[in-house]
TrEMBL record:
Pathway: One-carbon metabolism; formaldehyde assimilation via serine pathway; Carbohydrate metabolism; tricarboxylic acid cycle; succinate from succinyl-CoA (ligase route): step 1/1. Pfam families: ATP-grasp_2, Ligase_CoA. ATP binds at K46, G53, R54, G55, E109, A112, E117. This is Succinate--CoA ligase [ADP-forming] subunit beta. It catalyses: (S)-malate + ATP + CoA = (S)-malyl-CoA + ADP + phosphate; GTP + succinate + CoA = succinyl-CoA + GDP + phosphate; succinate + ATP + CoA = succinyl-CoA + ADP + phosphate. Its EC number is 6.2.1.5. The gene is sucC. Mg(2+) binds at N209, D223. Keywords: ATP-binding, Ligase, Magnesium, Metal-binding, Nucleotide-binding, Tricarboxylic acid cycle. NCBIfam families: PRK00696.1 (NF001913), sucCoAbeta (TIGR01016). GO terms for cellular component: cytosol; succinate-CoA ligase complex.
Amino acid sequence: MNIHEYQAKQVLKGFGAPVASGVAITAASEAEAAAKQLPGPLYVVKSQIHAGGRGKGKFKELGADAKGGVRLARTIEEVVANAQDMLGNTLVTAQTGDAGKQVNRLYIEDGADIDKELYLSLLVDRSVGRVAFVVSTEGGMDIEAVAHDTPEKIVTVAIDPATGVTPADAEQIADAYGLTGIGREDGLKLFPILYKAFVEKDMALLEVNPLIVMTDGRLRVLDAKVSFDGNALFRHDDMKALRDISEEDAKEIEASKYDLAYVALDGDIGCMVNGAGLAMATMDIIKLYGKEPANFLDVGGGANKEKVTAAFKIITADPNVKGILVNIFGGIMRCDVIAEGVVAAVRDVGLQVPLVVRLEGTNVELGKKILNESGLAITAADDLDDAAQKIVAAVK
Ligand code: ADP
Ligand code: MG
């Protein structure tokens, strides 16, 4: 689960991290009052969407010369004018895809006098099984280019879970940044704070880009992106309350109601599979035969007819889907239950695109019989290879 920048900053502030003061608004009429709560004379108007790259983003409705999704303002009037210009429009950034995201919320923030922009993130480094800091002196809006062109400018410091951030770890990070004086003191305090927030709140990612050194030498968290580990959200009701479902994929929300593991993707072959491993293999083999999956969908081991029907409806409701591949291995799950679910769903929503079904396992003969006798245009497949080739051919 992702949250907005202003929420992430609120969370980090609770742990003692230095963030600017700011006010979130959802209507331009609130902009003046929001700005008046800040010291000035520099303000920043920041689009709140669940995607990065906002500064360099472009609004669809505004001309190519219009400013991006993060704007400096030097007067309260400018704050108001920018809020009117931005709210309700669609921001396209390197991370949103071409469709962009509608800006329904702005964060009006105190402007900082920036001396340096640094990069910091915390993530779970699976290669060492530890939470790691990833840091670079080259922070700001182009970290992807830094990682690509000059990877030696990115330093990783993995943290031992038994000790947390030791003074030596903090010094190592401060050295990587070349911090001195008061900025170094701020950093030595900040790094353990960020680690604590990450671990206590079960974050999957915490990215501060940029972490800035201000002209007075102090550090400040200027941007913050936080994702939580969905499997641990049950023990963080306070974080769950920060969820903004208007930012999420409608199909994924629908799937979560039925406890289906569903991730929308960009391709055109809809997949219904049981078991995450088989779902991954199915996606791989579709790619192998030259097409892209439209989704990842694991209906789980104990799916009933209702769940299968819901899953099928979610897939068919996606206008990008040009063909559907059902690939089920009936272990705990019985093939006849899947077949009944597929037939019921097709009867319910109709079938506008080719459907290939590969069943294997418990009650497979009964499952095939149900499909064959349904009178529906379903192509049966014998194995994974056969199934992938058939659906790719049908879509092409
Ligand atoms: P994004 O990463 O989505 O582009 P950021 O929050 O990182 O958004 O903002 C982009 C850039 O805008 C920053 O790198 C920084 O230069 C500038 N900026 C953002 N917030 C402030 C602020 N409060 N004061 C001054 N400059 C800011
Ligand atoms: Mg940023």
